[in-house]
């Protein structure tokens, strides 16, 4: 949840809406993959002329655009030494990426890690191969995520982009803004997570806040619908047995999670135990919660 100081998000969205209508500049839009089979493409509604045209062409031309060929995972550390843009509302460290436009739809999961109750709140501006702005994924669309077994607390969004055919590359500019730096992200208090994990009443206590900063750590996971150039654009993969029941977690994996939960609780690391419980149940474990509760009760009685 994004907390705005002095201005509600509703007001900001209304302002952006009317500005887009009144602007005399028209932007081409990029289609992105829809969430359902019946919808083939959708037009990204989040393009802001104000942001897109506040960056001089000379600033874009001097950036080094790091190529990423899917499938790929990449970590970007944004520091005071990183490239910076301070134009219009854009402020602080940036990341610049080049992605292939000839491999069909791209799925990009962008995470910004929360560290020491601080986080870089990203915006993503997409350009075509001629560096014309085509889509904007604004910061308010990134949401807070609790830690997982392989990931920490973060803000995150998955982008699904289908580049217009005939292009070689598209370009992503990741940045934060002066407005973003005036807001914060609400986290989940560990005591609340603990209560939820053991089935107790959730305490009425304030959640911690992560302040937004102009530096941070980003992780990106990029995949495409094609792995080679000769895959047909309209090829669809169909499950030959759509009624089959998904496999449950293996006994060995379930035991591994149970032992890890026990160890975490013995060491007093309840947050880690809760994270393991969550991941185990996502994989289909039927005994992880019972293990967790038994260990908690045992620890409380000892």
TrEMBL record:
Native organism taxonomy: Bacteria, Pseudomonadati, Pseudomonadota, Gammaproteobacteria, Enterobacterales
Protein name per its UniProtKB record: Maltose operon protein MalM
PROSITE patterns: PROKAR_LIPOPROTEIN (PS51257)
Entry-linked InterPro entries: MalM
GO biological process terms held by the UniProt record: carbohydrate transport
One family name in Pfam for this protein: MalM
Listed NCBIfam families: PRK10564.1
Annotated GO CC locations: periplasmic space
């Amino acid at each position: 949840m994004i907390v705005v100081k002095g201005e509600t998000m509703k007001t900001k969205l209304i302002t952006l809406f009317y500005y887009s209508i009144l602007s005399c500049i028209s932007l081409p839009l990029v289609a992105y993959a829809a969430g359902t089979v019946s919808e083939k493409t959708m037009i990204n509604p989040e393009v802001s002329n104000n942001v897109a045209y506040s960056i001089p062409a000379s600033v874009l031309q001097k950036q080094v655009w790091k190529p990423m060929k899917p499938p790929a995972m990449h970590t970007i550390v944004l520091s005071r030494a990183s490239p910076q843009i301070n134009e219009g509302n854009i402020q602080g460290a940036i990341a610049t990426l080049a992605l292939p436009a000839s491999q069909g739809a791209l799925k990009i999961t962008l995470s910004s890690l929360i560290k020491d109750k601080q986080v870089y709140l990203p915006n993503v501006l997409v350009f075509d191969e001629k560096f014309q702005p085509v889509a904007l994924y604004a910061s308010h669309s990134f949401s807070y995520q609790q830690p997982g077994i392989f990931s920490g607390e973060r803000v995150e969004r998955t982008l699904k982009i289908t580049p217009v055919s005939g292009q070689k590359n598209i370009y992503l500019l990741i940045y934060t803004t002066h407005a973003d730096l005036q807001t914060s992200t609400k986290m989940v208090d560990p005591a609340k997570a603990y209560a939820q994990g053991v089935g107790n009443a959730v305490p009425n206590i304030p959640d911690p806040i992560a302040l937004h900063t102009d530096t941070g750590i980003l992780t990106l996971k990029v995949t495409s619908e094609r792995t080679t150039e000769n895959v047909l654009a309209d090829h669809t993969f169909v499950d030959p047995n759509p009624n089959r029941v998904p496999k449950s977690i293996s006994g060995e994996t379930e035991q591994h999670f149970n032992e890890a939960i026990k160890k975490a609780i013995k060491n007093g690391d309840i947050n880690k135990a809760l994270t393991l419980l969550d991941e185990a149940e996502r994989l289909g474990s039927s005994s992880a919660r019972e293990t967790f509760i038994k260990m908690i009760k045992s620890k409380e009685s000892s």
